[in-house]
User: What shape does this take?
Amino acid sequence: MMGGRFANMLQAPSIVMLFLWMVVPLSMTIYFSTIRFNLLYPERTGFIGASNYEFFLTDPAFLPAALNTLLLVGSVLVVTVTLGLALALLVNHRFPGRGIVRVMLISPFFIMPTVNALLWKNMFMNPVYGLFAVVSGAAGLEPVDWLADFPLGSIIVMISWQWTPFAFLIFMTSLQSQGQEQLEAAEIDGASGWQKAIYLTLPHLGRSIAVVIMIQTIFHLSVFAEIFVTTGGGPGFDSTNLAFLIFSQALLQFDAGVASAGGVIAIILANIVAIFLIRLVGKSLMVR
Assistant: This one.
C-alpha cells in the first residue's frame, strides 16, 4: 500500500509536466478555434462556434495544401525507404573504408532543416550560380529555376536528402541483427543473391520499414522550415502544405482563430494517420 503511494508520488511530477506541456496548449487551441480572434483587432473577440472550421475548410488554399501534404509525405517516404534500403544493402558488405562511408552517409541527418534548405537553395538550385545551373551551362543547356518551376519537387528533394540517412541507419542496424545461418543455408541450397534479398532480407526488415514509415510520416506532416526558407508556399499554392497554411493564417493574416481551427484539423488528420501506422507496425510485429 505504501509502496503504491510512493510510486504514485514519483510519477506525479511527470504527469503534471505532461498535462502542462500537452493538455493545456491543446485546450487553449480548441478554445481559440471557437472564437473570433484577430491579432490586429483583439477587442472584437467573440464566440462564433464552428465558423472558423468552416472558413478554414472552405479556404481556396485548403485543398491544394492538403493534396500537397499527402504528395510530399508519400513521395519522401518512397524516396527515403528505397534509397535507404539500397544503401544499407550495399554498405552491409565489408570493404575498405566502410566506417568512413557510414559516417558520410549518416551526416546529412544532423543538419538543421533551415540550414538544409539554405544549402539547397543557394548552392544547388540557384538558377544563376547554383551547382545545377553551372552543370547545365557547361552542357549547353538552359539553367532551370527549380524553386520556381518545380517548387514542391524541390522541397521533396531537400527533405529526402536529409531523411534518407535516418532510413539507412535503421535498416543498417536491422541488417546487422540478421542471422547468417539462414543466408548460408539458402546459399548452399542454390539461392541467388536476389532470391536471398527478396525472401529472407526483406521479410527480416519488415518491422524496420514499418517503423521508418511511421516516424517519418509523423514528422513530414508538419514540414515547415524548408518551405518557409525557399518557396514561401508559392508560386501560388504550389508548395503550400497544411503546416504552412496554418502559419499563414496566424502570422501573415493575423487570424489566430482560423489558425487554431486549422491546427485542430491538422491534429485530427495526424492522429488518424498515426493510428493507421501504429496498427501497421503492430501487424508487422505479430508477423515477426
About this structure: The chain is about 75% helix and 0% strand. The two ends are 39 Å apart (CA to CA). Strands lie at 35-36, 46-47. The chain has one domain: 60-287.
